[in-house]
Design brief:
This protein is mainly α and about 40 residues long. The protein contains two helices and no strands. The termini are far apart. The relative contact order is 0.14.
């Protein structure tokens, strides 16, 4: 069985709230927040 991430990448229906995808989205949010709060 393909992972939800693989299904997402290939354009197939997937479960968006699967553990791996949720953790990757949180990691991306944290990076964006860190970038946006950098000083000059």
């Amino acid at each position: 069985m393909a992972s939800e991430k693989t299904k997402m990448i290939t354009g197939k229906p997937y479960l968006a709230f699967e553990k791996e995808l949720v953790s990757e989205r949180q990691f991306a949010r944290d990076l964006v927040f860190e970038f946006n709060t950098l000083g000059p």
